[in-house]
Design goal:
alpha/beta, 2-enoyl-CoA Hydratase, Chain A, domain 1, three-stranded parallel β-sheet, 16 helices, 11 strands, ECH_dom, EC 3.1.2.4, ClpP/crotonase-like_dom_sf
């Protein structure tokens, strides 16, 4: 049986080491399973405490995806086996979302540089892993999206924070439509920091082994620096220089998100979801295929997801990343108990009929009153939030 995550350490010329984690389920587009999340989180803790580790690298096996989502099959089984409507009864969902969100938060707050190669598909759970990395790299194959509206969930893994930090109202548009972004738009939306050609990735890894990485003792290139020397800052800079040295010379043309940003901002800037939904829906026959596909995806998607995603974006606008993860954890448990999440997976992956029967079936039925249940803590009153310690010193 193949290991779900491959771990490797490579020695640089000055004795410091690169730590490499490879998601190893290429046949499943490296979808993040609970076991993968556990193993990756445990190893990140170990590497954070190892003074000889200079940089952590996250990548996916195969050439099709870094990570195209989470363990939908496992979540589907757990939802089928748990009583519908009881958001605290699904033990697997409780563990999965807690471990995944803790892992994502750890990457956001990691004490060492994290280089993530977002090649191929980067969706859902893959966005959660990549977005916290300090150095996010895309290439000509990259396709990024948060398409949860098609499966009845919502853009989680910190999506309510990430989407709120995108230019103008583009985050609202992406939450409602699940529209796919190319390499150029990944930069525009703030999802990427660097780019290279996919064929140059091995050469970059070789170049990193030649860098004079700093250690926690203050050593770099065999020399000792003073007590004020900061290894993290130095290593961030060395990694940045290595990436910039391999950046392709060609200029990226604006992607469709940026091309249509003015129109999207006009459509999605309001506070009434019903109006935004109607305006986006009107794009279904637009001459631009990217816009028309986005509108059609929204119209075919879960109205409950549209309401929940929009509500979380509104409520979390000025909240911390920790608060966002805590709110999304509550919403995710309710989503797993509500029904649309299971129905979306059934239609997409189980029966593959692509004919989900959403409940509620319309945005009017998925009202502001209806969505309130997704915001209520489902555990016993005396129990603290499972993610209460996020951000604790």
């Amino acid at each position: 049986m193949n290991e779900p995550v491959l771990f490797e350490e490579r020695a640089a010329q000055n004795g410091m080491r690169l730590a490499i984690a490879t998601l190893n389920a290429p046949q499943m587009l490296n979808g993040l399973s609970l076991e993968m999340a556990h193993r990756l989180d445990e190893r990140l803790v170990k590497w954070a405490d190892d003074p000889a580790i200079a940089v952590v690298v996250l990548q996916g096996a195969g050439d099709k995806a870094f990570c195209a989502g989470g363990d939908l099959q496992g979540l589907y089984r757990s939802m089928r086996e748990s009583p519908k409507g009881d958001a605290w009864a699904n033990r697997y969902a409780r563990e999965f979302f807690e471990v995944e969100y803790r892992l994502d938060y750890r990457i956001h707050t990691y004490p060492k540089p994290v280089l993530c190669w977002g090649h191929g598909f980067v969706m859902g759970g893959g966005i959660g892993l990549m977005m916290g990395a300090s150095h996010r790299v895309v290439d000509e194959t990259s396709k990024l999206a948060m398409p949860e509206i098609t499966i009845g969930l919502f853009p989680d893994v910190g999506g309510s924070w990430l989407l709120n930090n995108m230019p103008g109202s583009t985050g609202v548009f992406l939450a409602l439509t699940g529209a796919q972004l190319n390499t150029s738009d990944a930069f525009y939306a703030g999802l990427a920091d660097f780019r290279l050609r996919a064929a140059d990735w091995p050469r970059l890894m070789d170049a990193l082994l030649a860098q004079p990485w700093a250690g926690s003792t203050g050593a770099i290139g065999g020399e000792e620096k003073g007590p004020a020397f900061a290894p993290r800052s130095m290593n961030d800079g060395l990694l940045r220089q290595a990436l910039l040295a391999m950046e392709p010379a060609d200029v990226l043309e604006p992607g469709p998100l940026r091309q249509h940003a003015f129109q999207i901002n006009n459509l999605c800037a309001g506070t009434q979801l019903e109006e935004i939904y109607a305006d986006v829906a009107a794009l279904k026959d637009h001459a631009d295929p990217w816009l028309s596909k986005a509108a059609r995806t929204m119209l075919a998607g879960s109205p409950g997801t549209a309401r929940l995603a929009f509500t979380l974006l509104q409520r979390m606008r000025q909240r911390s990343l920790e608060d966002v993860f805590r709110a999304e954890y509550i919403a995710a448990l309710h989503a797993a108990a509500h029904g649309d999440f299971a129905e979306g997976i059934r239609a997409l992956l189980i029966d593959r009929d692509r004919q989900p029967r959403w409940n509620p079936a319309t945005l009017e039925e998925a009202s502001r009153d209806w969505v309130q249940k997704f915001l209520v803590e489902p555990w016993p009153p005396e129990q603290p939030h499972p993610l209460a310690d996020l951000g604790a010193v």
